[in-house]
Amino acid sequence: MDYLKTVVPSQLLAERGSNLVVINPGSANIRVGLAKQDSPFSIPHCIARRSNQLPKLNVQDQLLNSQVTTAQHMEREKAYDVIASLLKIPFLDEEVANNSIPRKMGRVDGYNPQNPRKDGAFTWTDTHVKDLDSSVPQESSSDKSVIAESLAQNEGTESKEPTLAERKFREVIFGEEALRISPTEPYSLRRLIRRGHLNISQHYPMQQVLEDLHALWDWILLEKLHIPHQERSLYSAILVVPETFDNREIKEILSILLRDLRFSSAVVHQEGLAAVFGNGLSTACVVNLGAQVSSVICIEDGVALPNTEKTLPFGGEDISRCLLWTQRHHQTWPQIRIDILTKPIDLLMLNRLKESYCEIKEGELDAIAVVHSYEDAMPAGSHKTRLTALNVPPMGLFYPTLLIPDLYPPPPRSWFHDYEDMLEETWHIEFPRRSDMPDGLYPGNNVGLQMWDNYPFVSMKPKKEEKVGLAEAITSSILSTGRIDLQRKLFCSIQLIGGVALTGGLIPAVEERVLHTIPSNEAIHTVEVLQSRTNPTFVSWKGGAILGVLDFGRDAWVHREDWIRNGIHIGSGRKYKDSYFLQAQAMCYINS
Predict the structure, then answer these.
(1) pLDDT digits over 280-322, tens only?
(2) The dihedral formed by the CA atoms of 92, 93, 99 and 103, expressed in degrees to the nearest 10
(3) Helix count (H) and strand count (E) of the chain?
(4) Interatomic CA distance for residues 562 and 171, integer angstroms
(5) Domains of the chain
(6) Is 571 left (phi over 0), alpha (psi -120 to 50) or beta?
């Protein structure tokens, strides 16, 4: 204890965090790093494998339903007009009438590397094996500018390319490089997590998802953290899981960490709880604004309150898609082919435009921007245009009918039976009621085979997605605590995390919208969003690092030998020692 009183926090992280790997997987990106690092590596959570059967790039997610119905389109236009009245900008029909003369748009041939970073073009990934194989890892580990420069040099030496017979495709491509593969290349692109869950479908079975997850994470450990296979047993893993994950997913990911990646031990922490520790708080309402899912959960004195959790099926990528819709509607978008589903590089461009120009503020918000077009294997074309109504898309967080999230087809019923009977025990056991668990939380309340009859994907996890806006979700979450003293404290301790939290003007917008959403009969008159001490995009990762470093007893850690020998079983006395009963806690591993 004397050591803890005198040690400097940075020294503690350096000493105890050198062999702790913190992993925070998300729908769009995975954040990975050693606990001693100031910030993690953030890598797109996707993988592309070469395919002999496919003549061109195949994106698994083009199987989703992205068609907008007439009713949805009408609801979207109605939401736009509501937002327009709040922001004091012209209504949708008024703007169209006023814009009978198209805005001037010019094409800029070539791209100026001296332009600000936000206007820079992405380059296509070189999918061929280079002669100097040993140089590839170093290049992939360097920053984006070096990668872009090296690719540009490769483009300039096209005349010296080997013949077609001599060229050899890379078998696997990871991260952002996978998203920048040309549609003409013979690859299958797979995103490992979608809308907060493993991306299981009849075209992407569970075992294939787990193999790809293992391959990507193994590549990150080798190329980014430089941890070779023979040294993995010297490291432990801290898994910071999203609230959306269910027990099957946590179990399988733990197996990958301990069995396949060969960590000596691992522990599971919850994303919302880790975020509170990452900002040095003890009580807060954590609002996680991710790329594809948003969630709300309240933490009191370092303990998460499970009945306060809300999940919203939209995020930053939906705002990017809405940005494209608003520009097309106002005829400010260049006449170029944009296909987010089959050309992932287009989504990268839209995300960059959103991050650079979208913010929430009153009045008309326009900006001159460079939009890039990416045609098959051709250099990017640049189009200078004036984007308009840039404050409307992020307001979709409060009016989700503006966003119209894509719908994903559910996995087939057979998926639940074809992978080693993962939950055979839980499917055939009558769980006892737990008096200390709220209704609907403990998986034993309504678990049984009949639950799959009217299958929605997340039905195994009692939490359901809310069909409300962000302000309503925050208000409902806090009011569900039922205690006026705690409610007042939480309304003044709202914490925004995730990439969308960086949106300009979002904090005052949340404060204003939440205050107006609180029922008039509630004696609450103040709402405050706390400024984040850590970058909101990786505050949960940082909190996971802090939790791991400060966990001296490690009572809740799962050891590799025990996991492989015993797995996890119902009714064990040992549980994952988290402040909120994760669903994984219903299945606890036991020592022999």
Answers:
(1) 999 999 999 999 999 999 999 989 998 999 999 999 999 999 9
(2) 30
(3) 18, 22
(4) 35
(5) 10-63+170-280+535-587 (3.30.420.40)
(6) left
